[in-house]
Design a protein that fits this description.
By secondary structure, this protein is of the alpha/beta class. Helix content is about 50%, strand content about 10%. The chain has helices at about 5-10, 20-30, 45-55, 70-80, 100-105, 115-125, 135-145, 155-160, 165-175, 180-185, 190-205, 210-220; strands at about 10-15, 35-40, 60-65, 85-90, 110. The longest helix has 15 residues, at about 190-205.
């Protein structure tokens, strides 16, 4: 398949959830999209790994709480095998393991009650190489779990000092859940400039993606739980 053909091909999605009705709901939404194709379903992490060995997929929608193997371990193994991107599905009030799943390599997460537009947008964003870091979900989840994060400020001083002032500013805004467009508008620069800063941040801090950058900012104390944009 050529690059042009690959770009035109629908995004191949695998649904992983132990509730068949949940999978059916997601499938109904996604099957209505001409540029998204559901290529498989699994009821737990073990089934998901087996399926992904024989099925070509771009994005996995992964539940957290499942029998036999939960979404955290399954995500870790998918990422370790350089498999498809993973978006975690979580019921916010119950899944206290969602943060660990993101650290394990998920490209982002959605609440299970997210509407169809958010679901579709998340799949396309992760497939394009971005990460799902929406203010309405990321901030609440990170604020909820920030009290459990280790105090890593001292060990990360050297890494943070490698960033320029502008790169540090961009990282703070990313950690607050702002998109590239919002950051560009706030800093009076182009989106391309923001993307360039983001690429340098990831390289300097040896981070994989935008989600890991958010986690790093919280873990190191660069951004504190409960901060607002005005407090930066």
């Amino acid at each position: 398949m050529t690059e042009a053909e690959d770009a035109a091909a629908p995004v191949r999605v695998v649904l992983v959830d132990d509730q068949e009705l949940v999978r059916a709901g997601f499938r109904m939404v996604l099957d209505a999209q001409p540029d998204i194709e559901v290529v498989g379903e699994a009821g737990d992490g073990v089934q998901a790994l087996d399926l992904l060995r024989t099925t070509r997929a771009d994005v996995v929608l992964m539940d957290v709480r499942m029998p036999r193997m939960d979404g955290i371990e399954a995500t870790r193994r998918v990422v370790a095998a350089s498999g498809p991107k993973v978006v975690i599905l979580t019921t916010f009030d119950l899944d206290e393991y969602a943060f660990a799943a993101i650290k394990a390599g998920a490209g982002g997460f959605l609440l299970k009650d997210a509407g169809p537009p958010q679901l579709i947008e998340a799949i396309k964003a992760v497939h394009s190489g971005d990460a799902v870091v929406a203010p309405s979900t990321t901030k609440r989840l990170l604020d909820r779990f920030a009290v459990h994060l280790p105090d890593a400020e001292q060990k990360a001083v050297g890494a943070l000092e490698s960033l320029t002032d502008r790169e540090g500013e961009v990282l703070r805004l990313v950690a607050r859940g702002m998109s590239n467009a919002e950051i560009a508008q706030r800093l009076f620069v182009s989106e391309a400039t923001v993307k360039t800063h983001m690429g340098r941040i990831l390289m300097k801090l040896n981070l994989r993606d935008r989600v890991q950058a958010v986690v790093f900012a919280y873990e190191t104390g660069l951004v504190k739980s409960g901060q607002t944009d005005n407090s930066m």
